[in-house]
């Protein structure tokens, strides 16, 4: 089996030699050149598994080469060597399609990590996670995922609550070079502000009251893989500063530790809020926004996906029926029409809740229009916070089941009869809602 081949583009002989020796020790063959024109010619003649290019070259710059590789649709991942601390250039390179960047003076450990990630792109699969649907809007998202998965650039995933932003993040991870490493999702809004630094960066025993042992933070847990920061807009400004520094320096200091430790993670983030508006209002740091929003993937709302609602419904009903160990119900014409008209302010998450409720209400394995309990099906939705809609529906359902159980003195058969459910359906709902 032939060795992988890398192209090094730099007009400084000492840098070329250093990079070539490092790559050859990693069992990678190396070709070198000193300008953009020669690099384009070499890339057009044969296939390289990696291209490393300096920014300043005699006849142009590395960004020009990055753009040319994208225009020619070459499969070669290209990484740019930037001046130390030149964040703007690094971000521009990533926006243009660079796989990654590395700063001068080149740290050989960082270089080896970069090369390892690039080499793994050839064996990265398509992943196990998938977005269902045939609409143009969702196909555009799939195509975008395939593109950004080949990069190490930070990606921000935007879209309404319930559209599947974490699913998109998982697909980016699974289709990329870090697929075999951890994917660590975290809801930034769910961590108390006083515990954030410890949760993100870890702490040492005795560093504060209650720190009875050393603890690795979320960054260390995701080492080598992907850290998905959901609802990043909920981070307080004080934490935004610290997060920005870790992203820029690729190192962190656990609480109570004197020295910093290096970290190698890819950052994906998401929010249903308008980050630009928060930046304009001084609630989100512009410099952090600039770093996490290198590439923006927008997930469309369910109401903009046409017939996908029926593809998703079939999948959801099949999954629920499997959990309940019962037959998959069918949607009659009235139910399909009602689903097609509804605007779904809570998106796919709300569709799941609506169908779960419909399955518990339907007779003879057929879901009818009357079983679809969704507000405003014929009109615009009422003013409901989509983020909390699923919780509201579950709370209503939980209260109804608890009341029926109490009235039936916790006889589940009698409670199921009161609710118009089968015993199996009631047991499923009790388990699903966590009712003791």
Topology:
Layout: E1 5-9, H1 13-25, E2 29-33, H2 36-45, E3 50-54, E4 56-57, E5 60-61, H3 62-71, E6 78-82, H4 87-96, E7 100-103, H5 108-120, H6 136-149, E8 155-158, H7 165-174, E9 183-187, H8 196-201, H9 218-221, E10 226-230, H10 237-249, E11 251-252, E12 261-262, E13 266-271, H11 275-280, H12 286-292, E14 295-298, H13 308-324, E15 330-331, H14 333-341, H15 347-361, E16 366-367, H16 386-407, H17 412-419, H18 423-433
Parallel strand pairs: 1-2, 1-3, 3-6, 6-7, 8-13, 8-14, 9-10, 10-13, 15-16
Antiparallel strand pairs: 4-5, 11-12
Helix pairs in contact: 2-3, 6-7, 13-15, 15-16, 16-17, 17-18
Task: Explain how this protein is built.
- The chain has 436 residues and is an alpha/beta fold.
- Helix content is 45%, strand content 14%.
- The protein contains 18 helices and 16 strands.
- It has helices at residues 13-25, 36-45, 62-71, 87-96, 108-120, 136-149, 165-174, 196-201, 218-221, 237-249, 275-280, 286-292, 308-324, 333-341, 347-361, 386-407, 412-419, 423-433; strands spanning 5-9, 29-33, 50-54, 56-57, 60-61, 78-82, 100-103, 155-158, 183-187, 226-230, 251-252, 261-262, 266-271, 295-298, 330-331, 366-367.
- A five-stranded parallel β-sheet has the order 2-1-3-6-7, sandwiched between helices.
- A hairpin with an 8-residue loop joins strand 11 and strand 12 (261-262).
- Helix 13 (308-324) crosses helix 15 (347-361).
- The longest helix is centred in the last third of the chain and has 22 residues, at 386-407.
- The radius of gyration is 26 Å and the shape is elongated.
- 36% of the residues are buried.
């Amino acid at each position: 089996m032939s060795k992988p081949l890398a192209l090094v583009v730099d007009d400084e002989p000492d840098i070329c030699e250093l990079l070539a020796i490092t790559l050859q020790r990693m069992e990678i063959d190396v070709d070198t050149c000193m300008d953009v024109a020669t690099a384009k010619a070499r890339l057009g003649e044969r296939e390289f598994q990696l291209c490393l290019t300096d920014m300043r070259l005699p006849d142009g710059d590395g960004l020009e080469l990055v753009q040319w590789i994208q225009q020619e649709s070459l499969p070669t991942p290209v990484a740019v060597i930037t001046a130390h601390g030149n964040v703007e250039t690094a971000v521009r390179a990533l926006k243009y399609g660079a796989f990654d960047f590395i700063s001068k003076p080149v740290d050989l450990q960082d270089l080896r990590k970069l090369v390892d990630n690039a080499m793994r792109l050839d064996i990265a699969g398509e992943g196990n996670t998938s977005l269902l649907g045939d609409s143009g809007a969702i196909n555009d998202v799939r195509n975008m995922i395939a593109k950004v998965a080949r990069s190490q650039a930070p990606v921000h995933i935007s879209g309404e609550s319930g559209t599947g932003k974490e699913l998109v993040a998982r697909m980016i991870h699974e289709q990329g070079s870090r697929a075999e490493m951890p994917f660590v999702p975290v809801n930034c809004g769910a961590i108390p502000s006083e515990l954030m630094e410890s949760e993100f960066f870890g702490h040492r025993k005795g560093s504060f009251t209650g720190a009875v042992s050393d603890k690795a933070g979320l960054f260390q847990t995701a080492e080598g893989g992907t850290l998905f920061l959901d609802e990043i807009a909920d981070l307080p400004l004080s934490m935004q500063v610290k997060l920005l520094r870790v992203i820029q320096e690729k190192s962190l200091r656990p609480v109570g530790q004197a020295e910093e430790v290096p970290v190698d993670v890819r950052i994906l983030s998401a929010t249903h809020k308008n980050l630009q508006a928060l930046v304009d209002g001084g609630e989100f740091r512009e410099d952090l926004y600039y770093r996490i929003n290198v590439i923006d993937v927008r997930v469309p709302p369910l109401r903009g996906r046409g017939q996908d609602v029926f593809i998703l419904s079939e999948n959801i009903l099949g999954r629920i029926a499997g959990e309940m160990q019962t037959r998959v119900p069918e949607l009659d014409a009235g139910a399909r029409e009602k689903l097609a008209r509804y605007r779904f302010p809570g998106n796919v998450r709300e569709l799941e809740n609506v169908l779960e409720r419909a399955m518990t209400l339907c007779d003879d394995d057929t879901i009818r229009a009357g079983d679809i309990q969704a507000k405003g099906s014929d009109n615009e939705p009422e003013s409901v916070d989509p983020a909390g809609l699923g919780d509201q529906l579950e709370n209503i359902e939980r209260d109804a089941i608890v009341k029926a159980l109490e009235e039936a003195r916790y006889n589940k058969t009698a409670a199921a009869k009161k609710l118009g459910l089968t015993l199996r359906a009631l047991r499923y709902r009790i388990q699903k809602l966590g009712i003791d």
